[in-house]
Design goal:
2 domains; 9 helices; 350 residues; binds pyridoxal-5'-phosphate; Aspartate Aminotransferase, domain 1
């Protein structure tokens, strides 16, 4: 979801951006007007995330999965062993470590596989070899509905976080992290572009054969404009960040998201009819996953939900069941409507 006011503003200024007589997607990425957009976006990210000075903001091509390759290509050479540690907490972290293994040695230091990824395995400094260039986690596991409540503390080992599905949903201490990336399409804007936040000292180490459009230094030196970037995605993200600021920033988002998620978890916890899939301590405020007793009932639930204007509740094809994705732009009313529908469905079918 995108916030409605953001989409309305896009609609209003789409044909004529700020009196230029042209659309924002028609003007040059090197124009002063677009420069204002990208500068404003940087400024809002810095302010809302309380980003320390020694972190760079990059806008990169190819969504999150391109970063699955960019991260190892840029960071593995930090140490001679070209080794990286991954915590396997679901589908996306698996795909990420497969990509990394093309370029160096991957150590799966912890895995949630034995518990069907319904809980997050611990990752502590003693599990990370000293010669590892970085350690990698997925902060929110979109498919399984798990989310780190606190990030692993790994001291000298830079922590890389795929925050695609929970970026700016809650306050995060960026100074404790090495690199955070997120494709825009869950909390920030259109698909196909990713935001990368990286500590200065992790830059400038890319493998020699790294394509320039995957090299963080190239992005940093050109303000992410070494070629024509996706100006529409950056412009939309800028509007989303303005919206986030107007909502009261990440602290207010955190409060609202917690209330939204609790509205649904309460129904699940009070019921024997719905079963939450994620382990309680690890469950996500962005993706609420649960199951019904059998497949026929699940299908019926989905069909009746649709009739009640409750969309996109089908669980990911890998796991089935139900998944309510309640990203930043989802209002509390959406969760309340689903909670009421669930209770009614249980009353008539339980
Ligand atoms: C959606 C998602 C991705 C995939 O993003 P793309 O932009 O489609 O590559 C990666 N990681 C996480 C955690 C996601 O939720």
């Amino acid at each position: 979801m995108l916030p409605i006011p953001v989409m309305q503003q896009i609609q209003e200024e789409f044909l004529d951006y700020r009196g230029m007589g042209a659309s924002v997607i028609e003007i040059s990425h090197r124009s002063k007007e677009f420069d204002e957009v990208i500068n404003r976006c940087d400024e809002l990210i810095r302010e809302l995330a309380r980003l320390p000075e020694n972190y760079q903001i990059l806008y990169t091509h190819g969504g999150a999965r391109m970063q699955f390759s960019a991260v190892p290509m840029n960071l593995l050479p930090l140490k001679p062993a070209h080794k990286a540690v991954y915590s396997e907490t679901g589908n996306f972290s698996k795909q990420a470590n497969v990509e990394a293994a093309r370029f160096g040695e991957v150590v799966i230091a912890s895995s949630g596989e034995t518990t069907n990824y319904h809980r997050l395995p611990p990752l502590t400094r003693d599990m990370v070899p000293d010669d590892a260039s970085y350690a990698y986690i997925t902060s929110n596991n979109t498919i399984y509905g798990t989310q780190y409540q606190a990030f692993p503390e790994l001291g000298d080992i830079p922590l890389v976080v795929d925050a695609t599905s929970d970026i700016f949903s809650r306050p995060v201490d960026f100074s404790s992290l090495g690199l955070v990336f997120a494709s825009l399409q869950k909390n920030l804007g259109p698909a196909g572009t990713a935001l990368v936040i990286i500590r200065d000292d992790l830059m400038g180490h890319a493998m020699e054969k790294t394509p320039s459009l995957l090299d963080y230094t190239v992005y940093a030196k050109s303000h992410s404009l070494s070629n024509t970037n996706n100006t529409f995605a950056i412009y939309t993200m800028c509007l989303v960040m303005e919206w986030l600021k107007n909502q009261g920033g990440v602290e207010a988002m955190d409060k609202a998201n917690t209330e939204k998620a609790n509205t649904l978890y309460q129904v699940i916890d009070d019921s024997d009819f719905f079963k939450g899939t994620a382990y309680k301590e690890d469950r996500s405020v962005m993706n609420v996953t649960f199951t019904l007793s059998d497949d026929a009932l699940t299908q019926q639930f989905l069909a009746e939900a649709l009739e009640n204007s409750l969309y996109a509740l089908k669980g990911h094809r890998l796991v089935g069941g139900i998944r309510a994705s309640i990203y930043n732009a989802m209002p509390l009313e959406g969760c309340q409507a689903l909670a009421a529908f669930m209770q009614e469905f249980e009353r008539t079918n339980g």
